[in-house]
Write the structure tokens for this entry.
Amino acid sequence: MKQWYNVERVREDIKKGIYTHVAIADGKVAGIIGGILTEEGTSEIYVFYIDEKYRYQGIGSKLLERFTDEHVNDGATDQYASVEKDNELGIPFYISRGFQQHEINKRYWRKLIENHNTSL
């Protein structure tokens, strides 16, 4: 994972627009989240990773909240997350934050207006 989630690599990926938010702890990349508004009203999370050393410390929640706040402020009302079907850490995280598996496309999604209060 270090080849993908080191400070220099993430900094370059941010410049390219791949990641939109990064958490730094102890001078290291502790977590990243990235995505875009794919169409009017839809927020899309493409990448979301928390370093094993920093899990269960609220970093993921804060990254998701900040990411979501910005998308809600830009008009998003729905949010989708790309999650591998066997992701034993990601799926419970998303479910605990109001995501459900979509019946048709099997992706995880949630309504933002109903489930999220922006803090910006």
